[in-house]
Specification:
By secondary structure, the chain is an all-alpha fold. It has 19 helices and 4 strands. The protein has helices spanning 3-16, 25-39, 41-51, 57-79, 91-100, 107-126, 129-136, 139-161, 180-197, 203-218, 251-278, 291-308, 319-324, 330-343, 347-351, 355-368, 381-396, 400-417, 426-440, and strands at 85-87, 164-166, 172-174, 313-315.
């Protein structure tokens, strides 16, 4: 190793406290690339969804990548955690299909709601309101959130590639196993499984790349057009700072902003809880050190994303793939941010990775996220039932937030009715009341 490389590694070791976290530069970089590879689909999907709301596809692509870079850099340097951020799925669908196409408002109205949400988030983070919500979640539920997210991630992987599909008369049905996309995903699952069994470093990333290559002769991986690999980022001029102030004091704006806030708060808290639990980042009290900094990262991301021209930015559950590869510090996030920055100029190359290549990684990450189930107290039913409902409802309701709602409400009710109300914090009671009011009023 050259002296220059040693100096660079020494700086990274010191800046991100790698030795203290039991990791090294190579592990963190591989983890960051893996996180990006499992998140990269957002570069293709987010512009298509927001285009349905009337937004410029190219501008949204650039806004998606830049907002991911900004938010993930804040996570890297301010929070020093291995989490990637980008405009979130579900939130972009609410933006396009509910606010714009359903309620009939312009996409500028929806973008203004996202801006207001980002400002409120920063205020809530500054006063540590979101930290209080994170801390009030009981430790057994935090472990359950990890397991529930694992099943949720696996379901995303299965449905993305068509291994499971919407059935008639049942919730889910088995997909067409003869389709090239499903066959490629199964091949990828075998490749990654063998690599993991042999303890190969970077197994998921190698598996994604190998599966992508195998998909070329199968017709699943679509190669970029000749000379189309490198290009300048599309202009932001049609989407950046396009706000509409005429309806900010209407009831509809309040409802839209509240919905954005609710889903994002509990998706983010759920993701941080689950992934941190899996990575053993929680302290003895079940708290996440520097959680305020982590939550501030997606607040800054949402605010910058709205200014650039995209929907709410949030911490991605796919960050678990990087953690599974050994990522433990902000160097993983820095690498992910760097990959998003590079993607601005190599969009066709990154977008060519098919869902059949990333789906096996998400399925196996679901397996990795299951281990905290061993920490859940299954003998005390006032702990076990809320934990079980949390785990069950995340994949069934296709929502991290709804899993937390069922877990918290059932926890409070069971503890109260069995005389164990003193075990519930006042903040948890308030949270349960808000959840109940939201669902029934």
């Amino acid at each position: 190793m050259s002296s220059k490389t040693e100096v660079e590694h020494g700086f990274l070791e010191k800046r991100f406290e790698l030795e203290e976290h039991g990791t090294d530069v190579k592990t963190e970089v591989l983890a960051g690339i893996t996180t990006f590879m499992t998140m990269a689909y957002i570069l293709a999907v987010n512009p298509l969804i927001l285009a349905d709301a009337g937004m410029d596809v190219g501008g949204v692509f650039t806004a998606t990548a830049l907002s991911a870079v900004i938010a993930t850099l804040v996570m890297a340097f301010y929070a020093n955690y291995p989490f990637g951020l980008a405009p979130g799925m579900g939130l972009n669908a609410f933006f396009a299909y509910t606010v714009v196409l359903g309620m009939g408002y312009s996409w500028q109205f929806a973008l203004t709601a996202v801006l207001i949400e980002g400002i409120i988030f920063i205020v809530l983070s500054f006063f540590k309101v979101r930290e209080a919500i994170f801390d009030c979640i009981p430790i057994n539920l935090k472990h359950a959130v990890s397991v529930g997210i694992g099943l949720f991630i696996a379901l995303i992987g299965l449905s993305n590639v068509g291994l499971v599909v919407q059935g008639e008369g049942v919730i889910l049905d088995l997909g067409n196993l003869k389709s090239p996309e499903v066959l490629l995903a199964l091949i990828g699952l075998i490749i990654m499984g063998v690599l993991l069994a042999k303890k190969v470093k970077g197994a998921l990333l190698i598996g994604i790349l190998a599966t992508t290559i195998i998909g070329i002769p199968m017709g699943v991986t679509q190669l970029p057009e000749a000379g189309g690999i490198i290009s300048l980022p599309p202009s932001l001029k049609h989407v950046a700072f396009q706000f509409e102030w005429g309806h900010i004091f209407t009831l509809d704006m309040v409802v839209v902003v509240f919905t954005f806030l609710f889903v994002d708060i509990f998706d983010t808290i759920g993701t941080l809880t689950g992934v941190a639990s899996k990575a053993n980042m929680l302290d003895e009290e079940g708290k996440l050190p520097r959680v305020s900094e982590a939550l501030m990262s997606d607040a800054v991301g949402t605010l910058s994303g709205a200014c650039l021209g995209t929907s709410t930015v949030t911490t991605f559950v796919e960050s678990a793939s990087g953690v599974a590869e050994g990522g433990r510090t902000g160097l993983t996030a820095l690498t992910t941010a760097g990959m998003f920055a590079i993607s601005l100029f190599f969009a066709p190359l990154f977008i060519m990775v098919p869902s059949s290549a990333t789906a096996p990684a998400l399925i196996l990450v679901g397996l990795f996220m299951m281990s905290p189930i061993k920490e859940v107290d299954l003998d005390d039913f006032t702990e076990a039932i809320p934990a079980f409902l949390t785990i069950l409802m995340m994949p069934m309701a296709y929502s991290i937030a709804e899993g937390i709602v069922f877990g918290i409400v059932s926890y409070v009710i069971l503890k109260t009715l069995t005389g164990k109300w003193k075990e519930v914090s006042p903040v948890t009671y308030i949270l349960a009341l808000i959840f109940i009011l939201k669902e029934f009023l």
